Amino acid sequence: MKASWEKLSIETLHPFGISRNVKTGDEVVWLRLEHDGIEGWGEADPSAYYGESAGTVEAAFATLAPRLEAIDDPFRLESIERDLHARLRFNGAARSAISSALHDWIGKRVGLPLWKSLGLDPADAPLSSFTIGIDTPERMTEKTRGADDYPILKIKLGSADDESRLRAVREAAPDKVLRVDANAAWTPSEAVEGCAMCAEYGVEYVEQPLPPTEREELAFVRGRSELPIFVDESSVVATDIPGLVGLVDGINIKLAKCGGPREAVRMIHTARSHGLQVMLGCMLETTLGIAPAAHIAPLVDYVDLDGAALLRDDPFVGPRMDRGRIVLGDEPGLGVTRA
User: Fold this and answer.
1) Total-model pTM
2) Which ranges in the chain are annotated with CATH 3.30.390.10?
3) Are 182 and 192 in contact (CB under 8 A)?
4) What is the CATH number of domain 116-338?
5) Is residue 254's pLDDT more than 90?
């Protein structure tokens, strides 16, 4: 397969704040794999939290280019991805782009969208939440009112005066489903108090209250929380999941950290086998980056795939959201084209 790639700059509609940083944009890498006249597309959405950047992704692609060019049968996904994992173990975003491009190529070759080749029904996908990033209570109120089309909101907390921020959102959206993500910012005592506060405001669940290294502390918080506890940063790949049993109620899967749709499906089934609920999340991504997760969304309980909806301009067209509902078409592969 011939590999080529291009770095793209994306800009958020509003500053996007979480507990550890504020972003106004990012850099992603658009990957194209061509074989037998068919081109498969994927996107790498690197996160500095996991040690990746657009630069490390491009370096990884350059290193792997000879091996990618040696692929003569893209249908051998298992062996190809096993080889990628051995060589790029800590480059989840880079591997995700390659995996997504391979799935896109195969779908285009056989003439089926990814969701159909997996035997899924798009109608089974849950509604996606829309994220309200950390800001002043006044700005969070404005952002909430600007998200009228979304019945579910995810609120980023984990900074000073969380309650005034949550109160502002609840008052602006008294009837909406609210979910909270602390992005590992709380201490155990803060998490216990934070979960109690969230329960008072009718929050559905709390995501990643503690740093991912704090396992015993996570059990402490969950044992004192009225709300279900989900983890994101604590659950990167399928092998992380067994160690979370008894500590959490569910996991959040992101393709950019786990390595792509194939590993994501593996994580879903692993979590199910251990009685855990499953959410699909995302980074700041274009429609191309969101598309593979959108196709497997019918397999999960909760969805937070609003990354492209947070952007000022999206360079791609494909799977989209309509009032939180994921809309998947019958186009082959990922169903994505340039805008």
Assistant:
1) 0.96
2) 2-111
3) no
4) 3.20.20.120
5) yes
